[in-house]
Amino acid sequence: MRAPTVRFYGGVREIGGNKILIEDGPDRILFDFGPSFDPRFEEYYLDYLQPRSTSPVKDLLEFQLIPWIPGLYSREALAGLSERYEPPQIHAVFVSHAHFDHAGYLRYIDPEIPVHVGGGTRTILDAIDSSGTTSYGEHPWQTFGGKRAIRVGGLEVVPYPVDHSVPHAYGFIVRTREGSVVYTGDFRQHGPRAALTAEFVEAAVEEQPAALIIEGTRAGPDPRKNFTEQGVREGVDGLLARTPGLAMASCYPRDVDRLGTLYRAAVDSGRDLVVPLRTAYLLGALAGDRELEVPVPGRAPNLKIYRRPKKRYATWEQELLDEAVDSSWVRDHARESLLLIDVNQFPELIDLRPEKGTPYVRSMSEPFSEEDGNDRVLHNWLDHFGLRLEQFHASGHCSGAELIEIGRRIRARTFFPIHTEHPEAFEGEVENVRSPQKFVAYGLPDGREIA
């Protein structure tokens, strides 16, 4: 029987799109399965030009925007390529967290393959799915809690909760017969759950792994200040104290920590936080989560729901409309409001008519995100209405210096940097760095290439 292997189908010299296959004898596990933020995608597809819903994998394969992995895709996803369908050869898929670049392609996976996610991640995915943002498909879902080992054949997977910009993110320790593999997922050390990341890193150090697969989003050139969530709070507090009228902000809709920060800042300044329908729906779905402190629509004071005019509201939206407010309410209560408004909702500015100089806090600045707006369009709208752009953001990722320090501490026999455009940033800084290549199998425990 050949040595266990690690193979990378995505996340190689790119942000996002991690697809990591670990094989040990007959057992095969895939970690994460979403699109990368590859500029090549926009060479073929735009908002109005997307892969056909009747043949999605065929259309993505045409431009090598999704990898061919035998025994992974469903018959339905392989429409137009039905002759290439093979019964499942992947025994489990593990998802590190609910961001689109890690989970967005789950809908293409064969429905017989178990998909393992954290319990909180499942709640978030269900809320996203039922509110019509993304479909994740039908699967035999398996939910896990932190640090309880899961057996898949001869492999053992231990999930560890970590801090990230979406709650219920996980890293993993995977034990094979030739040593362990540590996979960090996306993580940080400066958020409100930094202690979770510290515990995971300590466990990884004790494991003495054969391989460390580490995300490197912020490796290489990165001029941004490493704000903490408290730093964001202080910045927003100061801005609200200086603002006599309406204040506006945007953040990633799934960044529950940031939503909590903005809510508490609004309350302490005597304002209401006014959130979009979809954000209110997610907060409601997380209402029973004991690990999070989220303001819940209908229960939390100083929390309002904003209703955009639509010809038809979905069922999930209708349940939130009774207490919702509109643009005229916000205009009348401008001095007491902090309005959460994303770029795709900017047409509301035409009705809101904010005063010139109104601050717009853009509390997001990751290098790539499925939720980032087009900068040129953003500035066109801000300039037209005379809005003042402010930026306060705590990254969802460790800094490059932190990643190097973590790599030095864990001292894996092979160090694989992924989810980064600059894997070379680790060379000469961490021992045993190997910048992986797509589709190449690397053997354990020494990380050698296997034909």
Written overview of the protein:
The structure is a single chain. With 451 residues, the chain is α/β, with parallel strands linked by helices. It folds into two domains: 272 residues, Ribonuclease Z/Hydroxyacylglutathione hydrolase-like (Metallo-beta-lactamase, Chain A, 4-Layer Sandwich); 162 residues, 3-Layer(aba) Sandwich (Rossmann fold), CATH 3.40.50.10710. 25% of the residues lie in helices and 20% in strands. It contains 13 helices and 20 strands. The strands form three sheets. An eight-stranded mixed sheet has the order 6-5-4-3-2-1-19-20. It has a six-stranded mixed sheet with strand order 7-8-9-10-11-18, covered by helices on one side. Strands 14-13-15-12-16-17 form a six-stranded parallel sheet. Helix 6 packs parallel to helix 7. The longest helix is centred in the middle third of the chain and has 14 residues. It is globular, with a radius of gyration of 22 Å. The two termini are 15 Å apart.
